[in-house]
């Protein structure tokens, strides 16, 4: 064994303690460190021939790279839809690396049984029935891709072909209908060979909405003259957290033949709150469902889950036909359910967080985040230089400048907010107007954080008015 590696093995407990101490220091200061870093990263160095050892690597990382890492795990990082990592999920994630299980199959380990238990807990959390089976994947994009891959196989079944064997060309043109699809849907269609241009946007409801007009969807399906299609419904749009009427869409199956995929990346968590659970009424009727767990479940990257009612078709797509793996029989191994052969045990951090805090603890996070989003919305509405672009429906505040919200001026606002180090918001364009989004999903966020975010917005918008862009 290499002498440095042997020395690290002998000193492993002390090395883990050093890593623990660094992590503890970083997390202890998370609320006060700059939320983002806009300065230039260090230049690259060459690959060392002689290693520094684990302790040396830790020291160099702490000196050279750690100062530039964002506070994305902290309470005022409101960009994208980014959760943090609960204490229990961090513990579970560390143990995931320590045990280093390959969760692709059940041979020789209980790891896959733990994943199945965790999937069952999540299914219950979101109000799905036992008809839905599930598996862990890397994120919402992978979850959407898996769901649409199963939908693609279903289309073949309707048309009397096997896409997994004959190829996507056997389908001919495919129709994918959605009101406000997330960008990952187009990416998934590209990966699956269905084509980005096969995504057809259906009109949405009037009145500052992103939810699909079910009557318009009915008409679009009628226009297909019986040809089977895929419908992508939304449970929580990225700009304004609008929800399609899932029950009404599912009812269209009485007259039309389509696969219903629901992108519920973070909106599924509305099911946890009695005040918002009605928004996901009908989710159980979906043929496949996407839920992202490193968002509102607050487990570390990367973790998501996908559900489907047609595991048989999922196996047809993803089974790995190799003698050393065997064909799936009975309860199929996860190697036959997702694109990956080798799989990190992503279920363990989620298991830890669910076991530690239960449904009640995670409900509190959802309800607190929603209340804080409403509070920021009220604050923004009271600022002279800002205005809301849409109502605050759940956990996202969509805002812009009150006057001249050009792309250049809104970009300048975003830069000023980020430069403050107080918070980070990501840009969007809603109803043709450039704006910013503040997405609340971190378990740490509290009222005082909302006050600091609002103050940063007020300061940045005031600076912009005093030094106008363009």
Going by CATH, the homologous superfamily of the largest domain would be: Type I PLP-dependent aspartate aminotransferase-like (Major domain)
The number of helical runs is: 15
Structural class: alpha/beta
CATH architecture of the largest domain: 3-Layer(aba) Sandwich
Using DSSP, what is the number of strands? 11
Low-confidence stretches: none
Largest sheet: 7 strands, mixed
Order of SSEs, N→C?
Answer: HHHHHEHHEHEHEHEEHEHHEEHEEH
* Termini separation: 63 Å
What value does the Rg take, in angstroms?
Answer: 24 Å
The overall pLDDT average reads 96
Shape: globular
Annotated CATH topology of the largest domain: Aspartate Aminotransferase, domain 2
Sequence of strands across the biggest β-sheet: 1-7-6-5-4-2-3
| Percent of residues in β-strands | 5-15%
- What percent of residues adopt helix (DSSP H or I)? 40-55%
Number of domain units = 2
Task: Please give a quick description of this structure.
Its cofactor is pyridoxal 5'-phosphate. Keywords: Decarboxylase, Lyase, Pyridoxal phosphate. With 470 residues, this protein is of the alpha/beta class.
Describe the structure.
The chain is an alpha/beta fold and 470 residues long. It folds into 2 domains: 26-39 and 54-87 and 358-470, Aspartate Aminotransferase, domain 1 (Alpha-Beta Complex); 102-344, Aspartate Aminotransferase, domain 2 (3-Layer(aba) Sandwich). Helices cover 41% and strands 11% of the residues. The protein has helices at residues 3-10, 12-28, 53-64, 87-99, 111-125, 140-159, 163-166, 183-191, 214-222, 246-251, 293-296, 311-318, 347-381, 407-419, 447-466; strands spanning 133-137, 176-178, 199-201, 229-234, 258-263, 288-292, 304-308, 386-388, 396-401, 426-430, 433-439. Strands 1-7-6-5-4-2-3 form a 7-stranded mixed sheet, with helices on both faces. Strands 8-9-11-10 form a 4-stranded antiparallel sheet. Helix 10 links the parallel strand 4 and strand 5 (258-263). Helix 4 (87-99) runs antiparallel to helix 13, helix 6 packs across helix 8 and helix 13 (347-381) crosses helix 15. The mean pLDDT is 96.
């Amino acid at each position: 064994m290499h002498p440095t590696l042997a020395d690290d093995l002998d000193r492993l407990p002390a090395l883990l303690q050093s890593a623990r101490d660094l992590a503890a220091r970083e997390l202890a200061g998370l609320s006060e460190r700059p939320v983002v870093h806009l300065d230039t990263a260090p230049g690259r160095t060459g690959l060392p021939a002689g290693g520094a050892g684990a302790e040396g690597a830790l020291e160099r990382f702490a000196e050279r790279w750690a100062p530039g890492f964002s506070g994305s795990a902290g309470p005022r990082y409101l960009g994208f839809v980014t959760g943090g990592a609960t204490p229990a999920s961090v513990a579970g994630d560390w143990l995931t690396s320590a045990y280093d299980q390959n969760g692709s199959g059940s041979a020789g380990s209980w790891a896959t049984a733990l994943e199945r238990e965790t999937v069952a807990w999540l299914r219950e959390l979101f109000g799905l029935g036992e008809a839905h089976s599930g598996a862990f994947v890397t994120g919402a994009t992978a979850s959407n891709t898996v769901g649409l891959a199963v939908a693609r196989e279903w289309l073949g079944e309707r048309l009397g072909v096997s896409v997994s064997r004959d190829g996507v060309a056997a389908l001919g043109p495919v129709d994918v209908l959605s009101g406000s699809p997330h960008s990952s849907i187009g990416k998934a269609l590209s990966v699956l060979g269905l084509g980005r241009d096969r995504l057809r946007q259906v009109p949405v409801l009037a009145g500052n909405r992103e939810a699909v007009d079910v009557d318009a969807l009915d008409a679009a399906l009628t226009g297909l003259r019986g040809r089977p299609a895929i419908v992508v419904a939304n449970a929580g749009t990225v700009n304004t957290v609008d929800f399609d009427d899932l029950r009404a869409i599912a009812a269209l199956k009485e007259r039309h033949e389509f696969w219903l995929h629901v992108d519920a990346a973070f909106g599924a968590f509305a099911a946890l709150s009695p005040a918002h659970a009605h928004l996901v009424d009908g989710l159980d009727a979906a043929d496949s469902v996407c839920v992202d767990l490193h968002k509102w479940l607050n487990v570390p990257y990367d973790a998501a889950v996908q559900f489907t009612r047609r595991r048989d078709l999922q196996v047809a797509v993803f089974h790995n036909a190799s003698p050393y793996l065997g064909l799936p029989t009975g309860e199929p191994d996860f190697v036959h359910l997702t694109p990956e052969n080798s799989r990190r045990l992503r279920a363990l951090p989620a298991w830890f967080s669910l076991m530690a805090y239960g449904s009640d603890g995670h409900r509190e996070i959802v309800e607190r985040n929603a209340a804080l989003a409403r509070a920021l919305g009220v604050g923004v509405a009271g600022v002279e230089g800002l205005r809301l672009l849409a109502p605050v429906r759940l956990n996202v505040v969509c805002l812009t400048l009150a006057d001249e919200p050009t792309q250049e001026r809104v970009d300048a606002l975003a830069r000023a907010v980020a430069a403050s180090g107080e918070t980070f918001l990501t840009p969007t364009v809603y109803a043709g107007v450039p704006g910013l989004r503040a997405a609340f999903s971190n378990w740490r966020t509290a009222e005082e954080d909302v006050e600091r975010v609002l103050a940063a917005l007020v300061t940045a918008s005031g600076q912009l008015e005093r030094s106008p862009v363009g």
